[in-house]
């Protein structure tokens, strides 16, 4: 997940952190399946509520990311939705370590 977060610019990363804290970004319906993580990220903003599909997968020695938002599709940027899912997964990993449990986490 850290390899993904490195590619998120400071502004988008800040908006992702603020959104998660303020609950204007909510990670939902997470599916972890053989080298892939898929989720919905609900975004509540000035234009109302929008839901974006976000996915990470391991490709060879690297990774691939997808988000259905315009920022990713038109600009190719690692958007706040990608950052939100990566931060969410880092939190899940930390929780799993602290409780000594496993949840089939994707290591990036």
Radius of gyration: 13 Å
Question: What is the count of DSSP helices, taking H or I runs of 4+ residues?
Answer: 4
Q: Strand order of the main beta sheet, please?
A: 1-2-3-4
Largest sheet, strands/sense/barrel: 4 strands, antiparallel
Q: Can you count the beta strands?
A: 4
Described by the principal axes of the CA atoms, the overall outline is: globular
Mean pLDDT: 90
Portion of residues within helices: 25-40%
Keywords: Metal-binding, Zinc, Zinc-finger
Protein name: SWIM zinc finger domain-containing protein
InterPro entries: Znf_SWIM (IPR007527)
Domain SWIM-type: 52-90
Structural features:
single chain, globular, 34% strand, 4 strands, 108 residues, alpha+beta, 4-stranded antiparallel sheet, metal-binding
Structural write-up:
This protein has 108 residues and is an alpha+beta fold. The chain has one domain (2-99). It is built from 4 helices and 4 strands, in the order H-H-E-E-E-E-H-H. The protein has helices at 2-5, 10-22, 70-75, 80-99; strands spanning 25-33, 36-45, 48-59, 62-67. It has a 4-stranded antiparallel β-sheet. Strand 2 and strand 3 (48-59) form a beta hairpin. Helix 2 packs across helix 4 (80-99). The longest helix is centred in the C-terminal third of the chain and has 20 residues, at 80-99. The protein is globular. The model has no long low-confidence stretch (mean pLDDT 90). Keywords: Metal-binding, Zinc, Zinc-finger. GO terms for molecular function: zinc ion binding. This is SWIM zinc finger domain-containing protein. Residues 52-90 form the SWIM-type domain.
């Amino acid at each position: 997940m850290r390899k993904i977060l490195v590619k998120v610019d400071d502004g988008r990363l800040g908006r992702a952190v603020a959104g998660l804290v303020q609950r204007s970004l909510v990670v939902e319906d997470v599916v972890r399946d053989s080298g892939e993580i898929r989720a919905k990220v609900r975004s509540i903003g000035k234009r109302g509520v929008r839901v974006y599909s976000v996915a990470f997968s391991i490709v060879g020695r690297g990774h691939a990311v997808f988000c259905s938002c315009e920022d990713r599709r038109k600009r190719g940027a690692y958007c706040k939705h990608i950052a939100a899912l990566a931060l969410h997964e880092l939190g899940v990993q930390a929780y799993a370590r602290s409780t000594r449990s496993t949840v089939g986490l994707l290591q990036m």
